[in-house]
Design a protein that fits this description.
The protein is an all-alpha fold. It folds into two domains: about 20-55 and about 340-660, Glycosyltransferase (Alpha/alpha barrel); about 55-335, Glycosyltransferase (Alpha/alpha barrel), CATH 1.50.10. The chain is about 45% helix and about 5% strand. It contains 23 helices and five strands. It has helices spanning about 5, 30-45, 60-70, 80-90, 110-120, 130-140, 150-155, 190-205, 240-260, 270-285, 295-305, 315-325, 340-355, 360-375, 405-420, 425-440, 475-490, 495-510, 525-540, 545-555, 585-595, 605-615, 645-660; strands at about 55, 325-330, 330-335, 630, 635-640. A three-stranded antiparallel sheet has the order 1-5-4, with no helix packed on it. A two-stranded antiparallel ribbon has the order 2-3. Strand 2 (about 325-330) and strand 3 form a beta hairpin. Helix 3 (about 60-70) packs antiparallel against helix 4 (about 80-90), helix 8 packs parallel to helix 11 (about 295-305) and helix 15 (about 405-420) packs antiparallel against helix 16 (about 425-440).
Length: about 650
Amino acid sequence: MGVASRYRREDPFEKFPSSCQHVTIPPVRDLQDAIARAQAYLLGQQAPDGHWVGQLEANTTITSEYLLLCHLIDRVNRERETRAVRYLRRQQLPDGGFSLFEAGPANLSATIKAYFALKMAGIGVDDPAMVAARERIREMGGPAKADVFTKIQLALFGEFDWNGVPTMPVEIMLLPRPFFLFNIYEISYWSRTVLVPLLVLMDRKPVKWLPPPLSLDELWPEPREETSLRFPRVPEPFTWRGLFWKSFFIAVDDGLKIWERFSPRPLRKRAIEAARVFLEERLAVPGGLGGIYPAMANSILALRLLGYPDDHPLVMGQLKEIEALAAEDGDSIHYQPCPSPVWDTALAVNALIESDLRKDHPVLRRAAEWMIECQVLVPGDWQVKRPHVQPGGWAFQYRNDFYPDLDDTAMVMMALEKVHGLDADATRAAKERGLGWFLGMQNGDGGWASFDADNNRLYLNHIPFADHGALLDPSTEDLTGRGLELLGTLGYRKDFEPAQRAIDFIRHAQRHDGPWYGRWGVNYIYGTWSVLRGLAAIGEDPRHEYVQRAVRWLERHQNKDGGWGETCESYDDYEFAGVGESLPSQTAWALLGLFAAGRTGGPAVERGVNYLLRTQGTDGSWKDAFWNGTGFPRVFYLKYHLYAQYFPLWALGIYRRAHV
């Protein structure tokens, strides 16, 4: 069933009228018991060294790509492949496709990758799962309609013409930073770490030819030699400016293809060397290239093309990091895009403290000391734009020294501010370094982004290579709200100049009907929670009309069961903003937003709290049935398994503090 039919407002998720008064106030004993059980469950998930890490689940594409990578580099583990095939089979939709998120519609690129991985694993084309997937792929347009990364994956096996892939000449490595059109430091960190090894691949255009029985001819609705591989010119969503830039960059791509074929390219060797140096420097540190699967996988292929043997430490290091991403589930296995220990630990500490676990509890001190040890004290790519800012941030993963991020840094520093009993000098030094880095990374528009500063040349999202629309790392409402919350937690008020600029950004970014966009969590509920928490912490008057507009939006979007939910489909269609089956994490976000705006009681709040109490498991845990996190809007979503643990606990703790 498609999302469009599943989440229609008039269907199962009729919203409660905000004036409804029929509600039962939760008994104090039930609330106390729920918090105690939730704390016990979360404490039971802590690692011996003090950190937390939950599974970070993605869709099937990471597992499919892993299986294909193993065939590309001749490192197939048949036992693991068999278990991964079981996982893929269980994720297939009734219509034969594979989706980008739970309960989502079939996605062409995800389905092609799964089909290809299953076929390479030995599943026959007459298998019912393969027949259904093949029919769905052909219905959706076949490989020619797939995204760029899928086309590259197919081209590596000779199943797509390299001429149909956007041209990205390796000489891009030599473009100086002030160059007005494009250079590698004007795109986001995740794009940069994925692109640089791809530049080597796209320069060499390697092919591992497959025997005829493994080819994918059956996926093409028309014979591939008769299929046009031209890029679509009409942007989605349509804008005249987008049409101009898309047409312009397609013309540039046409010119680059001619230039690549007929130019002597005197700088090519120097550019390849620059790419090699870039990779070597970043692969020499633990954690894998960028700490993310796609960059690691591409780097392995690039290093092999550059002459590195398979047993070279840099190659073996990336393979080790990839294998560490495996998540086992009984007789199946799948792969995560990256681990999230710093983020999980910081959120768990905040939730435990806000639910009144003793601030000097040994568990919290151990977690805080672990986080202090994770602080990044060396420069990274961010320093290209901020050369005078000193390092001091935190990364998302165990190690990702070149790419700390603002969200983790803010959440860690708020946790350190709240934990008592730590070494005073070490904690003060960590917070001072962290705050200096955070303030130094504020963008010119007053907002904060995730990993880079002033990474906002939005026209670059229209180059043919960027069909995922997430090439850049501009300021976002959720990150800016987190920045305000950090400043407020550290004692700053709204007359602080960086806070004033951030509030201006927030006010200009608000939707007309009240919510804020959520870049890293699904979606408007997440963004609105993040902003309202920040405004409250910095001392903004909750009676302001724009704050009350957000409160009214949250109340209007409460589900009849008392919870809140929002489908990932809201990134494609604003009609789905705040619409979806209730989830514990999204319900907690809505409650935290209401609490921040001064609404700690009333029908909406009581219904939301009752929903959390009612859906808690006997072991003290909650479960999110659907995806709650965002990698790249519209193309890549995530499910943080621990979100359903610490956010409901956090919300119940603040509610108890207000009432008991």
